[in-house]
Write a structure and sequence with these properties.
Layout (H helix, E strand, L loop, with lengths): L3 H28 L6 H6 L1 H10 L1 H17 L5 H12 L1 H37 L3 H11 L1 H10 L5 H10 L4 H11 L1 H12 L1 H7 L11 H27 L2
Helix pairs in contact: 1-6, 3-4, 4-5, 4-6, 5-6, 5-11, 6-9, 6-10, 6-11, 8-10, 8-13
Length: 243
Amino acid sequence: MTTVTEQKQNPWIRRLPLIIIGLVTILGAIYLRDYFTFDALRDNREALLSFRDNNFILTVAVFTLAYVVIVAFSLPGATIATLTGGFLFATFPGTLFNVTAATIGATAIFLAARWGFSEKLGARLEGSEGVVKKIKDGIDEYQWSMLFLIRLVPAIPFFLANLIPSFLEVPLRRFVISTFFGIMPGTIVYTSVGAGLGEVFERGETPNLGIIFEPAIFLPILGCCALATLPILIKALRGKKGI
């Protein structure tokens, strides 16, 4: 039988993973910000390429694990990690490695938040009234569309895009699928930039990370956003016409 003391401890035990993530995030921001930089990648490029050539499978494993840790603990350097994936493994299979690692790391945060908070928060939202309840019901009705939108829109921080679905009780399967495919367009862009870093290094330049906002790239991403919102728009139009 569970004692009163154990019942009091349970909430803190459940929140322990998120507390650990939060502490590591703070420490990482303080002590690791100078290590996950473009300059660090440039200065160590030859050693990285040599290690990859001699230990390809091990390089893939170490890189994937490092990327998962970076995302799971929201450490600085996710963009550099994506560039590194392209630099080491080309656009493909670099994109596959990047997307897989980012999805695993995102899922870790999602599960930690769900285990620690979302059950109680989800129940509160479900039992609420007025605007809050309407917002939650709207998101519940269009979960796939909303999940893809928060991944496709660059303005939404990746960390928040991992937490919001957990608080709204999104099923794990939907979260994983929407994360994997939702981050793919942007990941392909940055991985391809990483694949061309050899020439950038030779010219002594820095990569153009704003390339994702160029019309040739940004407009197709906006098209994907439009497709994601299509079910919402269709139902809204049908509602107005009384269909």
